[in-house]
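tool=predict chain=A
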Amino acid sequence: MKWTKRLLGGKTSTGEHSVSAAEKVASRKEAFDSRVSRTGDSRANPLPGTSFETAAFAGGCFWCMVAPFDELPGIVEVVSGYTGGHTENPTYEEVASETTGHAEAVQIVFDPNVFPYARLLELFWQQIDPTDAGGQFQDRGASYRTAIFVHNEEQRREAEASKRALQKSGRFKGRIVTEIVDAGPFYPAEEEHQGYYKRSFGHYRLYRQHSGRDEFIRDHWNTDIDREKLRRELTDTEYKVMILGEMEPPYDNAYWNEKRSGVYVDRLSGDPLFDSADRYDAGDGWPAFSKTADTHLVRRQADLGGGEVRTALVSRLTGIRLGYLLYDGPSEERLHYRVNSAALRFVPLDNPDEASDSRV
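tool=predict ok
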Protein backbone atom coordinates (compact mmCIF):
# COMPACT_ATOMS: atom_id res chain seq x y z
CA MET A 1 0.00 0.00 0.00
CA LYS A 2 1.38 3.39 -1.01
CA TRP A 3 0.37 4.94 2.30
CA THR A 4 3.37 7.27 2.56
CA LYS A 5 2.41 9.44 -0.39
CA ARG A 6 -1.23 9.42 0.61
CA LEU A 7 -0.41 10.40 4.17
CA LEU A 8 1.70 13.35 3.06
CA GLY A 9 -0.69 14.63 0.44
CA GLY A 10 0.66 12.78 -2.59
CA LYS A 11 -0.93 12.57 -5.98
CA THR A 12 -3.29 9.76 -5.00
CA SER A 13 -4.84 11.70 -2.16
CA THR A 14 -8.05 13.65 -2.12
CA GLY A 15 -8.70 17.32 -1.38
CA GLU A 16 -6.70 20.11 -2.98
CA HIS A 17 -4.41 17.63 -4.73
CA SER A 18 -7.29 15.78 -6.36
CA VAL A 19 -7.36 15.92 -10.16
CA SER A 20 -9.94 14.33 -12.42
CA ALA A 21 -9.03 11.30 -14.51
CA ALA A 22 -9.58 13.27 -17.71
CA GLU A 23 -7.21 16.01 -16.55
CA LYS A 24 -4.56 13.46 -15.62
CA VAL A 25 -4.78 11.75 -19.00
CA ALA A 26 -4.53 15.12 -20.74
CA SER A 27 -1.49 16.06 -18.64
CA ARG A 28 0.07 12.67 -19.33
CA LYS A 29 -0.47 13.01 -23.08
CA GLU A 30 0.93 16.54 -23.11
CA ALA A 31 4.12 15.43 -21.37
CA PHE A 32 4.44 12.40 -23.65
CA ASP A 33 3.91 14.38 -26.86
CA SER A 34 6.37 17.03 -25.73
CA ARG A 35 8.98 14.40 -24.98
CA VAL A 36 8.53 12.64 -28.30
CA SER A 37 8.75 15.93 -30.20
CA ARG A 38 12.14 16.62 -28.60
CA THR A 39 13.66 13.15 -28.88
CA GLY A 40 12.06 11.52 -31.89
CA ASP A 41 10.42 8.49 -30.28
CA SER A 42 8.94 7.13 -27.07
CA ARG A 43 12.18 5.49 -26.00
CA ALA A 44 13.88 8.88 -25.87
CA ASN A 45 16.98 7.83 -27.75
CA PRO A 46 19.93 10.23 -27.68
CA LEU A 47 19.41 13.42 -29.61
CA PRO A 48 20.37 13.04 -33.29
CA GLY A 49 23.76 14.42 -34.25
CA THR A 50 25.17 14.35 -30.71
CA SER A 51 27.37 12.02 -28.68
CA PHE A 52 24.74 11.85 -25.97
CA GLU A 53 23.61 8.52 -24.57
CA THR A 54 20.62 7.38 -22.54
CA ALA A 55 20.52 5.62 -19.18
CA ALA A 56 17.48 4.48 -17.21
CA PHE A 57 17.18 3.48 -13.56
CA ALA A 58 14.37 2.44 -11.25
CA GLY A 59 15.04 3.25 -7.61
CA GLY A 60 11.68 3.43 -5.92
CA CYS A 61 9.78 6.72 -5.88
CA PHE A 62 10.94 8.71 -8.90
CA TRP A 63 10.56 11.97 -6.98
CA CYS A 64 13.71 10.97 -5.07
CA MET A 65 15.69 9.77 -8.08
CA VAL A 66 15.88 13.02 -10.06
CA ALA A 67 17.78 15.32 -7.69
CA PRO A 68 20.90 13.12 -7.34
CA PHE A 69 21.55 13.29 -11.09
CA ASP A 70 20.00 16.60 -12.06
CA GLU A 71 22.21 19.55 -13.04
CA LEU A 72 25.50 17.67 -12.85
CA PRO A 73 28.08 18.38 -15.58
CA GLY A 74 27.34 16.27 -18.64
CA ILE A 75 23.74 15.55 -17.62
CA VAL A 76 21.49 16.91 -20.35
CA GLU A 77 18.11 15.86 -19.00
CA VAL A 78 16.52 13.77 -16.25
CA VAL A 79 12.91 12.69 -16.84
CA SER A 80 10.58 10.87 -14.46
CA GLY A 81 8.48 8.15 -16.02
CA TYR A 82 7.36 4.55 -16.29
CA THR A 83 9.08 1.58 -17.92
CA GLY A 84 9.54 -2.17 -17.70
CA GLY A 85 5.87 -3.10 -18.11
CA HIS A 86 3.32 -3.99 -20.78
CA THR A 87 0.80 -1.11 -20.78
CA GLU A 88 1.26 1.65 -23.35
CA ASN A 89 1.26 5.23 -22.11
CA PRO A 90 0.19 4.42 -18.53
CA THR A 91 -0.97 6.98 -15.99
CA TYR A 92 0.41 7.40 -12.48
CA GLU A 93 -2.66 5.75 -10.96
CA GLU A 94 -2.44 2.78 -13.34
CA VAL A 95 1.20 2.16 -12.44
CA ALA A 96 0.43 2.53 -8.72
CA SER A 97 -2.34 -0.08 -9.07
CA GLU A 98 0.32 -2.71 -9.85
CA THR A 99 -1.50 -3.85 -12.99
CA THR A 100 0.83 -2.48 -15.69
CA GLY A 101 4.12 -4.18 -14.83
CA HIS A 102 5.85 -0.80 -14.99
CA ALA A 103 8.21 0.65 -12.42
CA GLU A 104 8.63 4.29 -11.54
CA ALA A 105 11.95 5.24 -13.11
CA VAL A 106 14.14 8.05 -14.35
CA GLN A 107 15.63 8.35 -17.80
CA ILE A 108 18.85 10.31 -18.14
CA VAL A 109 20.32 11.80 -21.30
CA PHE A 110 24.02 12.33 -20.69
CA ASP A 111 27.34 13.08 -22.37
CA PRO A 112 29.62 10.11 -21.61
CA ASN A 113 32.68 12.22 -22.37
CA VAL A 114 31.83 14.43 -19.39
CA PHE A 115 29.98 12.08 -17.04
CA PRO A 116 30.67 8.41 -17.89
CA TYR A 117 28.09 5.68 -17.47
CA ALA A 118 30.20 4.07 -14.75
CA ARG A 119 29.77 7.16 -12.58
CA LEU A 120 26.02 7.11 -13.15
CA LEU A 121 26.02 3.55 -11.83
CA GLU A 122 27.99 4.56 -8.74
CA LEU A 123 25.56 7.37 -8.03
CA PHE A 124 22.56 5.08 -8.61
CA TRP A 125 23.72 2.48 -6.07
CA GLN A 126 24.14 5.22 -3.46
CA GLN A 127 20.43 6.16 -3.66
CA ILE A 128 18.78 2.77 -3.09
CA ASP A 129 18.52 -0.37 -0.98
CA PRO A 130 19.60 -2.95 -3.59
CA THR A 131 18.74 -5.87 -1.29
CA ASP A 132 15.00 -5.10 -1.14
CA ALA A 133 12.97 -7.05 -3.70
CA GLY A 134 9.60 -5.78 -2.50
CA GLY A 135 9.92 -2.05 -3.11
CA GLN A 136 11.96 0.75 -1.60
CA PHE A 137 11.74 1.94 1.98
CA GLN A 138 8.11 2.78 2.84
CA ASP A 139 6.90 2.45 -0.76
CA ARG A 140 5.99 -1.18 -1.38
CA GLY A 141 5.14 -3.08 -4.53
CA ALA A 142 6.68 -4.01 -7.87
CA SER A 143 6.21 -0.49 -9.23
CA TYR A 144 8.82 0.60 -6.66
CA ARG A 145 11.35 -2.13 -7.47
CA THR A 146 14.95 -1.33 -8.35
CA ALA A 147 16.33 -1.98 -11.82
CA ILE A 148 18.95 -0.91 -14.31
CA PHE A 149 17.57 -0.71 -17.84
CA VAL A 150 20.45 -1.14 -20.28
CA HIS A 151 20.40 0.24 -23.82
CA ASN A 152 23.31 -1.72 -25.30
CA GLU A 153 25.80 -4.47 -24.52
CA GLU A 154 28.41 -2.06 -23.20
CA GLN A 155 25.96 -0.72 -20.62
CA ARG A 156 25.06 -4.28 -19.66
CA ARG A 157 28.71 -5.21 -19.21
CA GLU A 158 29.37 -2.17 -17.02
CA ALA A 159 26.17 -2.65 -15.02
CA GLU A 160 26.86 -6.31 -14.30
CA ALA A 161 30.47 -5.57 -13.31
CA SER A 162 29.29 -2.78 -11.02
CA LYS A 163 26.71 -5.06 -9.40
CA ARG A 164 29.29 -7.80 -8.82
CA ALA A 165 31.71 -5.31 -7.27
CA LEU A 166 29.03 -4.00 -4.93
CA GLN A 167 28.10 -7.51 -3.81
CA LYS A 168 31.75 -8.40 -3.27
CA SER A 169 32.38 -5.23 -1.26
CA GLY A 170 30.31 -6.51 1.66
CA ARG A 171 28.70 -3.11 2.10
CA PHE A 172 25.28 -4.80 2.25
CA LYS A 173 24.63 -7.96 4.25
CA GLY A 174 21.95 -9.30 1.92
CA ARG A 175 22.08 -10.37 -1.72
CA ILE A 176 21.93 -7.61 -4.34
CA VAL A 177 18.58 -8.19 -6.08
CA THR A 178 18.47 -5.16 -8.40
CA GLU A 179 17.54 -6.34 -11.89
CA ILE A 180 19.59 -5.61 -15.00
CA VAL A 181 17.25 -5.80 -17.99
CA ASP A 182 17.05 -4.56 -21.56
CA ALA A 183 15.48 -1.13 -21.88
CA GLY A 184 12.04 -1.00 -23.45
CA PRO A 185 9.71 1.92 -24.16
CA PHE A 186 9.95 4.70 -21.59
CA TYR A 187 6.82 6.73 -20.93
CA PRO A 188 7.37 10.16 -19.33
CA ALA A 189 5.20 10.78 -16.28
CA GLU A 190 2.66 13.56 -16.00
CA GLU A 191 4.09 17.07 -15.94
CA GLU A 192 3.26 17.46 -12.25
CA HIS A 193 5.84 14.77 -11.45
CA GLN A 194 8.70 16.28 -13.46
CA GLY A 195 11.38 17.94 -11.35
CA TYR A 196 9.23 17.39 -8.29
CA TYR A 197 12.03 18.19 -5.86
CA LYS A 198 12.01 21.73 -7.25
CA ARG A 199 8.34 22.06 -8.15
CA SER A 200 7.05 21.09 -4.69
CA PHE A 201 10.13 21.42 -2.51
CA GLY A 202 8.36 21.50 0.86
CA HIS A 203 6.24 18.43 0.22
CA TYR A 204 9.19 16.64 -1.36
CA ARG A 205 11.38 17.19 1.69
CA LEU A 206 8.62 16.06 4.05
CA TYR A 207 7.96 12.94 2.01
CA ARG A 208 11.64 12.10 1.73
CA GLN A 209 12.30 12.56 5.44
CA HIS A 210 9.46 10.18 6.30
CA SER A 211 10.41 7.60 3.68
CA GLY A 212 13.53 6.33 5.47
CA ARG A 213 15.72 6.74 2.39
CA ASP A 214 18.11 9.35 3.80
CA GLU A 215 18.64 7.42 7.02
CA PHE A 216 19.44 4.28 5.05
CA ILE A 217 21.94 6.13 2.86
CA ARG A 218 23.68 7.58 5.90
CA ASP A 219 23.93 4.12 7.46
CA HIS A 220 25.47 2.48 4.39
CA TRP A 221 27.63 5.14 2.73
CA ASN A 222 30.41 7.30 4.16
CA THR A 223 30.57 4.88 7.06
CA ASP A 224 33.43 4.20 9.46
CA ILE A 225 34.67 1.54 7.03
CA ASP A 226 34.84 4.10 4.21
CA ARG A 227 36.65 6.57 6.43
CA GLU A 228 39.14 3.94 7.56
CA LYS A 229 39.93 3.11 3.94
CA LEU A 230 40.58 6.78 3.23
CA ARG A 231 42.67 7.01 6.39
CA ARG A 232 45.03 4.44 4.91
CA GLU A 233 45.16 6.12 1.49
CA LEU A 234 45.46 9.79 2.45
CA THR A 235 48.22 11.73 4.15
CA ASP A 236 47.56 13.04 7.65
CA THR A 237 46.94 16.55 6.32
CA GLU A 238 44.60 15.34 3.57
CA TYR A 239 42.57 13.29 6.03
CA LYS A 240 42.27 16.14 8.52
CA VAL A 241 41.22 18.56 5.77
CA MET A 242 38.92 16.42 3.62
CA ILE A 243 37.34 14.16 6.24
CA LEU A 244 37.59 16.02 9.55
CA GLY A 245 37.04 19.48 8.07
CA GLU A 246 40.16 21.14 9.46
CA MET A 247 42.03 23.96 7.71
CA GLU A 248 45.64 23.47 6.65
CA PRO A 249 48.26 26.05 7.72
CA PRO A 250 48.23 29.34 5.79
CA TYR A 251 51.22 30.00 3.52
CA ASP A 252 52.31 26.39 4.05
CA ASN A 253 50.27 24.60 1.42
CA ALA A 254 50.78 23.73 -2.23
CA TYR A 255 48.63 26.27 -4.05
CA TRP A 256 48.50 29.37 -1.86
CA ASN A 257 50.73 31.21 -4.35
CA GLU A 258 49.93 29.31 -7.56
CA LYS A 259 50.09 31.70 -10.53
CA ARG A 260 49.56 29.44 -13.54
CA SER A 261 46.35 29.17 -15.55
CA GLY A 262 44.39 26.00 -15.09
CA VAL A 263 41.65 24.16 -13.25
CA TYR A 264 41.51 22.98 -9.65
CA VAL A 265 39.81 19.59 -9.37
CA ASP A 266 38.50 17.40 -6.55
CA ARG A 267 41.48 15.41 -5.32
CA LEU A 268 39.50 12.16 -5.14
CA SER A 269 37.28 12.31 -8.22
CA GLY A 270 38.89 14.81 -10.60
CA ASP A 271 35.69 16.86 -10.84
CA PRO A 272 36.46 20.48 -11.84
CA LEU A 273 35.67 22.71 -8.87
CA PHE A 274 37.48 26.02 -9.41
CA ASP A 275 39.08 27.91 -12.30
CA SER A 276 42.22 30.04 -12.12
CA ALA A 277 40.31 32.78 -13.97
CA ASP A 278 38.22 33.24 -10.81
CA ARG A 279 41.15 33.21 -8.42
CA TYR A 280 42.36 36.26 -6.53
CA ASP A 281 44.83 37.06 -3.77
CA ALA A 282 42.96 37.31 -0.48
CA GLY A 283 46.19 37.85 1.42
CA ASP A 284 45.47 35.11 3.95
CA GLY A 285 47.67 32.25 2.74
CA TRP A 286 45.04 29.99 1.17
CA PRO A 287 43.77 29.65 -2.42
CA ALA A 288 40.84 32.06 -2.85
CA PHE A 289 38.18 32.15 -5.57
CA SER A 290 35.27 34.47 -6.28
CA LYS A 291 33.09 31.66 -7.64
CA THR A 292 33.06 27.95 -8.46
CA ALA A 293 33.72 26.40 -11.85
CA ASP A 294 30.32 24.70 -11.65
CA THR A 295 27.76 25.74 -9.05
CA HIS A 296 26.32 22.23 -8.91
CA LEU A 297 29.56 20.53 -7.88
CA VAL A 298 30.19 22.51 -4.69
CA ARG A 299 27.50 22.64 -2.03
CA ARG A 300 27.26 24.72 1.11
CA GLN A 301 26.78 23.20 4.53
CA ALA A 302 26.28 24.76 7.95
CA ASP A 303 29.23 24.21 10.29
CA LEU A 304 28.49 24.75 13.97
CA GLY A 305 32.01 23.99 15.22
CA GLY A 306 34.11 26.51 17.09
CA GLY A 307 31.15 28.18 18.77
CA GLU A 308 29.99 30.02 15.66
CA VAL A 309 27.94 29.25 12.57
CA ARG A 310 30.06 29.08 9.44
CA THR A 311 29.39 27.98 5.87
CA ALA A 312 31.49 24.97 4.97
CA LEU A 313 32.20 23.99 1.36
CA VAL A 314 31.67 20.35 0.37
CA SER A 315 32.35 18.60 -2.93
CA ARG A 316 28.95 17.31 -4.01
CA LEU A 317 29.93 13.95 -5.47
CA THR A 318 32.62 12.83 -3.04
CA GLY A 319 31.44 14.59 0.11
CA ILE A 320 34.93 15.81 1.03
CA ARG A 321 35.36 19.09 2.87
CA LEU A 322 36.99 21.83 0.81
CA GLY A 323 37.10 24.91 3.03
CA TYR A 324 34.76 27.78 3.90
CA LEU A 325 32.67 30.43 2.21
CA LEU A 326 33.29 33.99 3.42
CA TYR A 327 31.65 37.23 2.39
CA ASP A 328 34.57 39.62 1.94
CA GLY A 329 35.42 38.90 -1.70
CA PRO A 330 36.12 41.37 -4.53
CA SER A 331 33.03 40.66 -6.64
CA GLU A 332 29.65 42.33 -6.34
CA GLU A 333 28.35 39.24 -4.51
CA ARG A 334 31.31 39.51 -2.10
CA LEU A 335 31.83 35.73 -2.23
CA HIS A 336 35.18 34.41 -1.04
CA TYR A 337 35.76 30.68 -1.44
CA ARG A 338 38.66 29.90 0.90
CA VAL A 339 39.85 26.45 -0.14
CA ASN A 340 42.44 24.01 1.16
CA SER A 341 45.14 22.92 -1.27
CA ALA A 342 45.06 19.42 0.22
CA ALA A 343 41.54 18.86 -1.13
CA LEU A 344 42.57 19.79 -4.67
CA ARG A 345 44.75 18.86 -7.59
CA PHE A 346 45.81 21.58 -10.02
CA VAL A 347 45.61 20.83 -13.74
CA PRO A 348 47.65 23.41 -15.70
CA LEU A 349 46.05 24.72 -18.86
CA ASP A 350 49.22 24.48 -20.94
CA ASN A 351 49.94 20.87 -19.95
CA PRO A 352 46.82 19.07 -18.68
CA ASP A 353 48.58 15.70 -18.66
CA GLU A 354 50.89 16.88 -15.89
CA ALA A 355 48.53 17.64 -13.05
CA SER A 356 50.27 19.20 -10.07
CA ASP A 357 50.15 17.23 -6.82
CA SER A 358 49.11 19.13 -3.71
CA ARG A 359 51.12 16.84 -1.44
CA VAL A 360 53.96 18.93 -0.06
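Residues 1-25, 35-45 have pLDDT under 50 and may be disordered. Residues 114 and 162 are 19 Å apart (CA to CA).
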